[in-house]
């Protein structure tokens, strides 16, 4: 069961004057992607069929992710009376469908699948951490801090799985790096762009490039250098690399430079 609830959020402290419009737009999109955990749970349970311990943990993970979506959706409705979370989520589910009828991971191994989940949780934990530090609105800050804590725990859960399955599968480093690069590149796929569209501009025809630019413009400006350093370290650790070595430091500098370039271009 989730470790916190709506009762832990100071809803009565909401201050619209302190809410940046870009932050609200991101919240609307995030409420939809978080709420979609049930589909991923079906997929992951198929991939890890026979592992009762992990599939049990996935059930808990799903409940926490769905709670994130509900809390963010409630917040978005509080901040914007014209936003209807349930309708936006239905539009997102109808338009973004992932194949779940599988028996093996699309990453090529169970290690690869768990590693990919680590990278996703790296992204979400850093996003909510950056949002909590960037926003001046007290309710949004409280929600993001709670969610960030959950996402860090989820990362550790999947990382434990990576280490357990690596003992059995012995996936070579080059293959793990291929998964890392592939999953990082997927940040520009349809999921985030379409969620941003459904949360903020459903009256328009969906255009991936336009929605992707709008999401990037709002999201990338949240981040500071220490966030990118944390992200790179977590990704390196999940990939089987030294998270504190010279290569990690070099990659963190490159990532920060790249992020600044994309933020300016967006």
TrEMBL record:
It comes from mine drainage metagenome. The keyword Transmembrane helix does not apply. Gene3D superfamilies: Ribonucleotide Reductase, subunit A. This is Rubrerythrin. One of its GO terms (molecular function) is metal ion binding. Its cofactor is Fe(2+). The keyword Lipid metabolism applies. The lineage of its organism: unclassified sequences, metagenomes, ecological metagenomes. One of its GO terms (biological process) is fatty acid biosynthetic process.
């Amino acid at each position: 069961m989730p470790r916190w609830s709506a009762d832990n959020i100071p809803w009565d402290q909401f201050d619209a004057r302190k809410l940046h419009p870009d932050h609200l737009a991101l919240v609307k999109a995030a409420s939809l992607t978080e709420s979609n955990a049930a589909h991923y749970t079906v997929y992951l349970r198929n991939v890890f069929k026979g592992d009762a311990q992990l599939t049990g943990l996935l059930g808990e993970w799903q409940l926490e992710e769905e709670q994130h979506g509900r809390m963010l959706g409630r917040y978005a409705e509080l901040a914007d009376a014209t936003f209807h979370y349930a309708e936006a989520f239905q539009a997102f589910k109808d338009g973004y469908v992932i194949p779940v009828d599988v028996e093996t991971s699309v990453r090529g191994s169970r290690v690869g699948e768990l590693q990919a989940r680590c990278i996703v949780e790296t992204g979400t934990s850093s996003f909510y951490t950056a949002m909590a530090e960037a926003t001046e609105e007290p309710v949004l800050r409280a929600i993001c801090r709670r969610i960030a804590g959950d996402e860090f725990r989820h990362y550790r859960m999947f990382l434990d799985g990576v280490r357990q399955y690596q003992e059995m599968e012995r996936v070579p480093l080059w293959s793990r790096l291929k998964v890392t690069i592939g999953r990082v590149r997927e940040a520009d796929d349809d999921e985030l762009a379409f969620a941003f569209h459904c949360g903020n501009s459903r009256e328009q025809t969906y255009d991936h490039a336009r929605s992707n630019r709008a999401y990037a413009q709002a999201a990338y400006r949240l981040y500071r250098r220490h966030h990118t350093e944390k992200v790179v370290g977590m990704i390196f650790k999940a990939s089987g690399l030294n998270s504190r070595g010279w290569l990690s430091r070099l990659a963190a500098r490159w990532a920060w430079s790249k992020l600044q370039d994309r933020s300016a271009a967006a």
